[in-house]
Design a protein that fits this description.
This is DNA helicase. The chain has about 850 residues and is an alpha/beta fold. The chain contains 33 helices and 22 strands. The longest helix has about 35 residues, at about 5-40. The radius of gyration is 32 Å and the shape is globular. The protein binds adenosine-5'-triphosphate (ATP). Adenosine-5'-triphosphate binds near residues 226 and 816.
Length: about 850
């Protein structure tokens, strides 16, 4: 006779079969609908094209969501006190009579599944977890939550359910409790990718995920408390709940590094959500990939709020007054611009409250008007009509001497030019900084070594002074156009299409390492570029060119997408993908808001999520709030992990200057990642930082204490291939020693073997990363070690694909590994970052095992570590 457990499993299997059958039906219906829309012959009007695209996009999105639900479609059920049962899954489904058969985990009714406890059962008598593989039920785990109702009493009791707080039946066979499901998920080997946690979300996490969407929510918690997981699930929740708004505006998720974004990039798609833009701080300024590096102190200074005033002053410094009257030869005349006339034009332009580049039109209109009057006066014969005056103004603008003189007074500028000049030209920085920076701080910011002589810098338009009257070549496109409208009132917008050619000259500095336009931007430069862009506005032609480039890119994506659709719907032979793309080439709505937003600095996102928010500098906050002017945000972080020197120690200090007290803080307290034994060691480091800091409680123990391995305890000869490697390539005097290499190779090999396909990180101070990585790649050919590559961004991206990665602490932020080999922890303490915080981060990356490799004495707070 089958056991109750077998009966229950068969019952659940039958239900799961029904769900998958329905999923297949709905998918087929949706696919048919999409096919119908795409094959329909519309009227060809722009409106019908838009309508068709909107329908096609909606069907395609729904299909993507249904596809994403295939794995673990249903993972739980709730038995209500009134005898009803509700199944919870990745998406909601109804049967053909429109009766709900599966509830989306984000629906209000699903709240009880995550929050019910024995003390507060939320109207439930039982919570059931289903373990599935593919479409098969492989396990059932029950949490009894109250007096069983008569209908389910038999099954529940016979299950011998081992529930949270209901351990009376512990030891029951294959039936597991929800807690056991959680522990099983946490103990699984790491894959280098984060997974969704909808089946095991905990009550404190669920509360944060479903918190109100408006306002700023800070999620504070120690390492491994699930802050990142919660932030991502909250994004999915918000998209579900407020889809109409957020599909239009998008969600921006900012994470610390490319490797981190790669680590988390599967979570939202697995939940069927794609309407998000991921970015690192280095990629937040469209068109710039800030891969440069610089000293920590320089980066910290660039993030200082004083830089906002410095950038603003630098912009104003480019709106110049001549020291004395300017004389400009023009034809047979000499034209004059008095200091007062320029000052008047400048005041007028500034009062227009437009960004620098468009206020320039006001400035030019004033001065060209003045110069035109001078020319008219010098023409014998008297008054001219408006057309003739306009022709003179036009001729003046075409004159290179006049053009150059005016450019010098108010040049068109790109953000790159403005910020580049600040760091390549000490005089520009000194002028803009005034008394705001000390000479030492200015030296820290300068691209030039401080010892270099101060070199007078040519101004953009002074770089190649042009004299005399030489007409610009007609090929200069809109140079034939005036930079403003000649008729309307002075401060109105010029008619479109009569913008000046952006005479943008690369700013070069004699003796500078490279022209400003070719600088390798660093992440800390990005907020400064954005600040500058805000004050400058886009140079007109640049904007035009960018629009053309974007349109071309869109067309290419359109063709690519059409090919995907043809593949997906099996329309080969019926529809030509390129023709399909052509048919779409009317107003395009297929491109999601998220895709547009990625390239548009002025895009206003509907919600902002920032991970590792403790690392965000004041200048970067300014940028982020510009991206999300509605200031609805979820910020997750841990102040004890802040690497920035001088960083704030409270959220009030961190956020107050920009958002006052308009934020609420929620705390997560349970560490799901780091076993208790490792956390005990990390706790000592935390206390050394500040005895008042609270250590999160680990949800599990590893059954094994972290260990220390002393350098010298592993002989060089004991590591196969090391002696030969060192004979060909002896260790550098200031690099890792032969004995250190031996110890690290030994520890990494042992941990990789124990991780059995999981991930191992060797964490070292930045300058040892490269030599250690090279040595391990040579010594452990059987173990893939993540390679370095020429492009640091992709090197980081690769790090999680290999079983062993060698990384600096900064690169491991937010990540986790089965095992960590921490190299010379004492060295981290003397780095310019906050050493104790870095050490705390490094120690808390492991889910299973930690080994510390050290020479000399361990710092006092690590002395509890056992020897190997
Ligand atoms: N409820 C849960 N069920 C299953 N796994 C969970 C749960 N909560 C957290 N985890 C797992 O715990 C690990 C740590 O989570 P996460 O990376 O979000 O923590 P964190 O607070 O962001 O850590 P850090 O501050 O160190 O970056 C992840 O593997 C995550 O999937």
């Amino acid at each position: 006779m089958p056991s109750t457990q077998d009966v229950e499993r068969a019952r659940e299997q039958a239900y799961l079969d029904t769900l998958y059958t329905r999923l297949d039906e709905v998918r087929e219906i949706t696919r048919e609908q999409l096919r119908g829309v795409l094959l329909a012959v519309g009227t060809g009007t722009p409106q019908s094209i838009v309508e068709r695209d909107v329908f096609a996009a909606a069907h395609a999105d729904r299909l993507a969501r249904l596809d994403a639900a295939e794995g673990r479609l249903c993972f739980g059920a709730m038995d209500h006190a009134d005898g009803r049962r509700t199944y919870i899954g990745r998406i909601g489904l109804s049967d053909s009579e429109q009766e709900p058969i599966l509830v989306d985990w984000r629906a209000p009714v699903a709240t009880a599944f995550y929050r019910a406890t024995l003390a507060d059962p939320h109207g439930l008598v039982r919570r059931r977890h289903l373990r599935t593989r593919g479409r098969e039920v492989t396990g059932i785990a029950d949490d009894p939550l109250g007096l069983p109702d008569p209908a389910s009493a038999g099954a529940s009791a016979a299950d011998g359910a081992e529930g949270a707080g209901a351990n009376a039946n512990a030891g029951a066979t294959a039936v597991q409790s929800g807690d056991a499901m959680l522990l099983e998920a946490l103990a699984a080997p790491r894959t280098g990718r984060m997974h969704d946690i909808i089946a095991t979300l905990q009550a404190e996490q669920d509360r944060i995920i479903r918190a109100r969407a408006n306002g700023i929510l800070v999620v504070d918690g120690g390492p491994g408390t699930g802050k990142t997981a919660v932030a991502l699930h909250r994004a999915a929740y918000l998209l579900y709940n407020d889809r109409a708004r957020l599909d239009q505006s998008g969600v921006l998720i900012v994470g610390p590094s490319p490797v981190f974004l790669r680590y988390i990039d599967q979570v939202l798609p697995s939940l069927g959500e794609t309407g998000v833009v991921f970015a690192t701080p280095a990629r937040l300024f469209p068109g710039v990939d800030a891969t440069g590096t610089e000293p920590v102190e320089a980066a910290a200074l660039k993030g200082d709020p004083r830089m906002a005033d410095i950038v603003a002053t630098a912009v104003r410094d480019h709106q110049r007054l001549p020291r004395r009257e300017l004389t400009i030869p023009y034809d047979d005349h000499v034209l004059r611009l008095s200091r007062d006339a320029v000052a008047r034009a400048r005041t007028r332009a500034r009062r227009s409250r437009r960004p620098h580049n468009s206020a320039r039109r006001v400035f030019l209109r004033e001065l060209l008007g003045d110069l035109t009057t001078q020319v008219v006066r010098q023409i014998p014969g008297g008054l001219l009509d408006a057309d003739e005056r306009r022709q003179i103004t036009r001729d003046l603008w075409l004159d290179e001497g006049v053009h150059a003189a005016l450019d010098r007074l108010w040049p068109l500028l790109t953000p790159q030019q403005l910020v580049g000049a600040l760091f390549t030209d000490p005089a520009v920085l000194a002028r803009a900084a005034g008394g705001r920076l000390t000479p030492a701080e200015r030296d820290l910011l300068a691209d030039l070594p401080p010892a270099n002589p101060r070199i007078p810098t040519p101004r953009p338009a002074e770089a190649a002074p042009r004299r005399g009257r030489r007409r610009t070549s007609p090929s200069r496109g809109d140079a034939l156009q005036l930079p403003f409208d000649t008729d309307p009132a002075p401060d109105t917008d010029p008619a479109p299409g009569i913008h000046p050619a952006p005479d943008i000259h690369p700013i070069t500095v004699a003796g500078a390492r490279r022209p400003a336009g070719e600088r390798r931007w660093t992440p800390a430069d990005v907020p400064l570029l954005d600040e500058a862009a805000e004050l400058l506005g886009d140079p007109d032609e640049e904007a035009g060119l960018e629009a053309a480039r974007r349109a071309e890119r869109e067309r290419a994506e359109e063709r690519e997408y059409a090919r995907g659709v043809v593949d997906m719907l099996g329309l080969h032979g019926q529809v030509d993908a390129d023709a399909l793309a052509e048919r779409w080439s009317g107003p395009r709505v297929r491109r999601s808001a998220a895709e547009h937003a990625r390239e548009d600095r002025s895009w206003a996102f509907g919600h902002l999520i920032v991970d590792e928010a403790q690392e965000i500098s004041p200048m970067l906050w300014r940028l982020l709030w510009r991206r999300c002017p509605g200031r609805t945000a979820t910020l997750v972080g841990d102040l004890a992990q802040t690497a920035r020197p001088g960083a704030p120690t409270s959220w009030e200090q961190l956020l107050g200057p920009v958002v006052d007290d308009r934020f609420t803080v929620e705390r997560l307290t349970v560490n799901y990642r780091t076993p208790q034994e490792i956390m005990d060691v990390a706790a000592e480091v935390l206390r050394a930082q500040d005895p008042a800091l609270v250590v999160p409680v680990s949800v599990r123990s590893a059954g094994r204490r972290p260990a220390a391995l002393r350098v010298g305890d592993v002989a060089v000869e004991a590591v196969p291939g090391l002696a030969r490697l060192l004979a060909g390539d002896p260790p550098a005097a200031d690099g890792p020693s032969a004995e250190l290499l031996a110890a690290v190779a030994h520890a990494a090999t042992a941990e990789a073997a124990a991780a059995a396909g999981g991930r191992v990180a060797v964490i070292a101070r930045p300058r040892d990363v490269q030599p250690l990585r090279a040595a391990l790649m040579a010594l452990l050919p059987d173990l893939a070690v993540a390679p370095d590559s020429i492009d640091p961004a992709s090197a980081a991206g690769n790090a999680l694909d290999a079983p062993v990665a060698v990384l600096g602490v900064a690169e491991t932020k937010g990540l986790e590994f089965d095992a960590v080999v921490l190299v010379e922890p004492a060295d981290l303490l003397v780095e310019p970052t906050r050493g104790l915080a870095d050490l705390y981060v490094a120690l808390t990356r492991a889910t299973r095992s930690l080994r510390v490799v050290h020479s000399g004495e361990l710092p006092p707070f690590l002395r509890s570590l056992d020897g190997d």
